[in-house]
Structures are given as C-alpha cells and as structure tokens.
Design goal:
five-stranded mixed β-sheet; Nucleotidyltransferase, domain 5
C-alpha cells in the first residue's frame, strides 16, 4: 500500500510517499512558511516523479501539531480534501512524536522543543522501546527552566531537538552532562516519519474520523492573545 504523508506543522513543508518496503520519495522546503503556495504543487510533482496518480494511494497520514497555526490549517484542510475526494483513510500523529521518531532507536530521553511564543515551548518526553516510540510525558507547553526542573534527576542521556536550538544558546541548552543536542537534520519534523510512527494503527485500520479531526493548537493564536490583551481580558 502506498501512503501519502504530509507535515506542515513547522516552517518545513514536507511531503512523502512510502510503502511497506521503502520510502519512495520525499520533498521538503524549509523556507519562508510557503505552505499555501507550495503544498499541493509539491504533492503533484512528487506523484508525477514517482509515475503515480492519486488513485494509486491507499492511505494518508498527517501531523496535526502543535506548531504553526497557519501551516496546520493548510495541511489538514488539504489532506481532508484528498481523503474525501478519493475515499481514503486518514491517520494523524502529533508533531512532537513525529519529531522524536526522526531519532529512531535513540536509547536515551528525547525532548523535542518547539517555539510556542511568549517564552514557552511545545514539548514532551519520549524514548524508544526497541522499535516502538514510548511517550513518557504527553505534549505540554513549558519554559526551558521548567523542562530543566523536570529532568534535573534524570540519569539517562537526554537529546534536545527542535527549533529551540534557534531560540536558545548552546550554553543554555546544555544544562547538564547528560544533555546532547540533535544534529540540525533532526530538528524539523519530516513527513516520511509519520507512516512508520503510525504503522501499527495503519495495519489495524484504526483511522481517524476526518469529520472530527482538528489541529492540535494547545494555545490561543497570537491574534487572539493580542485581542484579549487589548480588551483587558488578560491579567
């Protein structure tokens, strides 16, 4: 079965096609948050390069966030349209799990941290049990200091990954001898990771309901925050 996967949760507009045996193709454009312009033309281009048509697809996967509000809306609207038009099952994963899964097989604690604005970061704690990603802490919004506090007694190696490396200095991030920073190639979620992350659900046919599936925002948008601040609704 060939699966079309997309991730628009970050600046990276990522699409991929995988099957049971291989990642057949992937395109990623990590520049200037151009999802509304790039997404569907890139899907068409990738399918053309693979000598495929949409009718060759058997399933769809997507990352629902947290991340860029605009990117999430664009990605989810597009993939729902494809799912409805082709009557295909859709499987969704959160972007932090997707990011963590990119470090497949890492033996320590994976701590993806993605900018949530206003000093906070979307984050969760993960590790691998053989080939299975295990969630140790569900996605939350924390400051770097709060993450440090939660991990202060951790004896295992800790890998920090995500765009926090663009927001905080290396000195701030390497807060203990256990901490290492992921290489830059692991700091953006990639569409090709999602079908493998969701392999068990896909094999069991445990698809999401496209009518109720919504982005995982976890906070109000900047516009909503500024409006409430202006109206004196925030303390």
């Amino acid at each position: 079965m060939k699966i079309l996967s997309i991730d628009t949760s970050s600046n990276n507009c990522s699409i991929a096609v995988v099957d049971e045996n291989a990642m057949l193709g992937e395109i990623s454009i990590n520049y200037n948050l151009q999802h509304s312009v790039l997404l569907m033309p890139l899907v068409e281009e990738l399918l053309r390069r693979l000598d495929m048509t949409p009718k060759d697809l058997g399933a769809l996967t997507i990352s629902t966030g947290p991340g860029s509000f605009t990117g999430l809306r664009i990605g989810l609207s597009a993939i729902k349209g494809v799912a409805l038009g082709l009557n295909l099952p859709l499987y969704a994963a959160d972007s932090l799990s997707t990011l963590a899964y990119g470090a497949f097989g890492y033996k320590g604690i994976l701590v993806p941290m993605v900018d949530a604005l206003r000093g906070g970061f979307y984050t969760g704690f993960y590790t691998f049990d053989k080939d299975r990603l295990v969630t140790l802490m569900e996605p939350v919004i924390l400051t770097l200091d709060e993450v440090k506090e939660k991990l202060k007694d951790e004896k295992r190696e800790i890998m920090i990954l995500g765009d926090i490396t663009l927001k905080k200095s290396e000195e701030e991030l390497l807060f203990s001898e256990q901490v290492i920073l992921a290489p830059q190639t692991l700091n953006i979620p990639k569409a090709s990771s999602i079908p493998y992350l969701l392999r068990e659900r896909i094999e069991n046919g445990d698809a999401d309901d496209i009518h109720t599936l919504v982005p995982l925002y976890m906070r109000k948008s900047q516009a909503e925050h500024e409006y409430e601040k202006k109206k004196g609704m925030l303390k």
